[in-house]
Design brief:
By secondary structure, the protein is an alpha/beta fold. It has one domain (5-29, 59-209): Glutaredoxin. It has helices at residues 37-47, 69-79, 93-102, 106-115, 149-154, 183-194, 203-209; strands at 5-9, 15-19, 66-67, 82-88, 116-122, 129-131, 134-136, 163-167, 173-178. The protein has a five-stranded mixed β-sheet. It has a two-stranded antiparallel sheet with strand order 1-2. A hairpin with a 2-residue loop joins strand 6 and strand 7.
Length: 212
């Protein structure tokens, strides 16, 4: 649960959300600190061989139709809908919890399907992604770990999982929300962006007044 969120502006006057307590980290989120990377990779090589498998689709059944980022990007040039991007990793427990609980909630899933083009992006995907002629590769494509440059750029280097990225109808970034959110917390956030309330209202005011 994200108990409090505050809003800043970047150089493009776009809103950017962060969980309270840190300007970069959500309360319930997975991180891989730089000093722990080598240890993690060593342990993964012997104990967690399954972590490197690409997983662009959620576990279980969902009424949400999930796309890869590149397919959604192309589709949105025709659809002109807002995009929601779930940035995750295979080893992130909070990502799996949000996948199994929040995205499986019927109300959440129905609203997302109606109002967003929904994307699953594995931040550690090994293949090279090409968007409008620009290629995004993994920093360690032939080994364990490593982060795809697409995820790094979308999250502006603030690598926290899960991260929820919202893009407008022109594929321009609106904001990133870091950390796990329950269905109850996530629902008003979806409405906040789908209804364009973010353009002229503060999140705290909208959330306080929100009613299902």
């Amino acid at each position: 649960m994200i108990n409090s969120v505050h809003m800043d502006y970047n150089n493009n006057n776009k809103h950017r959300f962060y969980s309270a307590g840190s300007p970069m980290k959500g309360k319930n989120a997975c991180y891989l600190p730089f000093r722990s990377i080598q240890l993690f990779l060593l342990l993964a090589a012997f104990l967690l061989p399954s972590l490197t498998r690409a997983q662009e689709k959620p576990e279980g059944n969902s009424i949400i139709k999930w796309y890869s980022f590149e397919d959604a990007y192309k589709l949105n040039k025709k659809k002109h809908k807002k995009m929601f991007v779930d940035v995750f990793t295979d080893w992130c427990g909070w990502c799996k919890k949000m996948d199994k609980e929040t995205f499986q909630d019927p109300e959440v899933a129905k609203y997302m399907q109606k109002n967003f083009i929904c994307v699953k992006l594995n931040a550690e995907r090994k293949d090279t992604v090409e968007i409008d002629g620009v290629k995004f590769a993994n920093s360690n494509p032939n080994g364990r770990g490593g982060t795809n440059k697409l995820a790094v750029d979308l999250l502006r280097g603030k690598m926290s999982y899960p991260s929820s990225l919202f893009l407008d109808e022109n594929n321009q970034s609106i904001t990133v929300v870091a950390g796990y959110m329950s269905a109850a917390d996530f629902t008003p956030l979806l409405h906040f962006f789908a209804e364009n309330a973010y353009k002229d209202q503060k999140w705290e005011d909208y959330r306080a007044a929100y009613k299902k």
